[in-house]
Every structure is written in C-alpha cells, then in structure tokens.
Amino acid sequence: MDNWDHLSKFFKKNNIDIQFADYDPVIHNAPHAAYNLLKKIYTILTDREINDGLEIIQEQYLRDEAETMPEYAKHTIAKKLKDKEL
Known about the structure:
This protein is mainly α. It has a domain of 44 residues. α2 runs antiparallel to α3. It is flat, with a radius of gyration of 18 Å. The model has no long low-confidence stretch (mean pLDDT 83).
C-alpha cells in the first residue's frame, strides 16, 4: 500500500471531501496540481479561501512582458503539445 492509499483511507475515515480525482493529477505531476490540492485542503481545514488572484501590478507586468517578447521567444505548438494536461 502506497502513501496515496493511506491518505485516501485517512480522508474517508475522517469524512474529508478529497477524492481520487483531486490528487490523481498530483501523482502524474500535472502543472499546478499540488498547489490546487493544497488550496483545497487548506479551505477544508480552515473554512477560508486563498486569494491567489494577481494584483494589478502583476497583471500589468505580464502584459508588458508578453508585448515586449520577441516572436522567436514565444511558445510554439510543440511546447504546448508537451503539456501533460492536454
């Protein structure tokens, strides 16, 4: 029995609403999966949401960076095909 099975048993025993679909992406190293799982666990344990939205200055920085990035440095379809969530 591996660690995920132990965690699954713990979640079921303590009536914590974490399903296999919540931690399966973490097992497969999907981008942001661990962060999303931790956010869900935090919300369940504290009854509070994490505000992870970007601040105005961060949004502006991302827009500026995208506008000044040369065409050859932008992601191609080959990069997108390597994404594990596709």
